[in-house]
């Protein structure tokens, strides 16, 4: 649209003015819409003086890290560094089952790893990192001011306050006046793929809050494989755009089943798919043809993912249930 085109030009000019001819900017990317659009805009404005950092926390989706590196680095030409911190995160999550504790550990570890990487980059380029890019949207701004409910916790992992103080970085938030649909429109104008622009949201603590109970490498792998089959089928059958968010969770229980002439005793996958406008309330995605599709997805998951013998569909609305299980 004309307004969005104007926004792009104005914002690029504003960024260039703020950062100046030599200043550098660092920012975390996740592969999600917001951070990718923010990174693309920053790259358009200052090119290689923007340094993106992708923290591999060990609980991202199947092949996600490699895909994000390919998309931002190879395809979009963005300066990106992947920090492999999977073992660090998983080590700290060992034995932890409480959802809030998981979130705090991941949030704090994220800040620590990101800070360390930013400091290395700063050193490498002679202390010229002056700004921190964040893909904060208007609803995030409003929420962090006024909302003290569960969403206050949602944003904990975005809180890179230490970085701002220790490294004396100043914040740049080019999306802070935009709503989600405007960010998607902006992404389209900036030439991002539809696949990226229409991506479902993914929580910062990732699969750690979708593996109920203790998070281990093995459990994460099961959740990952099931989720990958689920999303693949959703896309293949043309449901992806109709669903606001879908994912597979791994339940911390075992169920009895039968395979050939043998009794099995294995784990349970819960599938979630919701429709929503603002993620504050949500309805389950449901239709007769969708249930037929779910049936196929269920057999694929049970056949292809070792350790799973049962799949259930979560039919709870938000409220009182949340979209995530933890
Ligand atoms: P709930 O589970 O509260 O989730 O209904 C609402 C939306 O927020 C996402 N979510 C998060 N996003 N960091 C994030 O960036 C988080 O810690 C987090 N927790 C939940 C959730 O996926 C849904 O889209």
UniProtKB/TrEMBL annotation:
It comes from the Eukaryota. Signal peptide: none annotated. Residues 2-199 form the GMPS ATP-PPase domain. Keywords: ATP-binding, Glutamine amidotransferase, GMP biosynthesis, Ligase, Nucleotide-binding, Purine biosynthesis. ATP binds at residues 30-36. Its EC number is 6.3.5.2. It catalyses: XMP + L-glutamine + ATP + H2O = GMP + L-glutamate + AMP + diphosphate + 2 H(+). Pathway: Purine metabolism; GMP biosynthesis; GMP from XMP (L-Gln route): step 1/1. Catalyzes the conversion of xanthine monophosphate (XMP) to GMP in the presence of glutamine and ATP through an adenyl-XMP intermediate. This is GMP synthase [glutamine-hydrolyzing]. The chain holds residues 210 to 535 of 535 of the full protein.
